[in-house]
Amino acid sequence: MARFLSVTISGLSGGMIYAAVALSLVLIWRATRVVNFAQGAMAMFTTYLAYTVFEHGGSYWLGFVVALLSGLLLGAFVERVLVRPVETGPPLNAVVVTLGVFIFLQALAGLLFGGRFRSFPTPFSNKNYNFGNVSTLSPFEIFVIVAVAVVAVLLYVLFQYTDVGLRMRAAAFQGEVARMLGVRVGQMLTLGWALAAVAGSLAGVLVAPSVFLHPNNMDGVFVFGFTAAVIGGLDSPVGAIVGGLGLGVLLSYVASYFGGDLQTMSALVVLVLVLMVRPNGLFSTTATRRV
Description:
two-stranded antiparallel ribbon; ABC transporter involved in vitamin B12 uptake, BtuC
């Protein structure tokens, strides 16, 4: 029983990282109707910028802010310069552009920062507390959970209770109608990409101490985050959180009781089963989804 509780608690911590990636995908989908396959690479690159701050004597919190701000600017740049020219074409065009951005950023990171693994600092202790035979969350893991939860609440408030969130959704679903109503669609799309990149950058900074920093360090995290987003529903922030936590706990169980080699397969099985029952995701509020 003690082992089961320890594995569950560990899974919750990892699940919040997947939830953060899923939230960034949900945000960009709700704001632009595009799935950004470069989200993980963008998060990796901004995490390297934070690491550069540490190398030059900056504090963790300065690097943290630099990562989020650089994510904001990078997301806006990608939408404005690379994605916007193809937004009026077939949806697949934007997807291909994001794949190109993914390849470019990984190559650029390797060129600028090298390919060796680097340890990433934490603002709080990463040592787990033990109560009897049960290993509980470390202070840093508690920080991860709180940070992602705050982002989830802010996204929910943004889309449900603010004019900006309403304009972003209108620009994504009915751009021409939104323009006739006075919505600056271009600005809303740029804002959606920028905010999604901030959420992705947060995930990159939070996961780096666990997986180390490397040009490919976000690949597996992005795959599981994308899986969590699809399971929960690409238009549901709540689904992103539930999907991330559920997947994190599942993968923790599989790794502990059956071996880490089966984690990816187990995630795929769950994804297929959910899509067979609820093709739009467990918490989706739309009847159809464009891909």
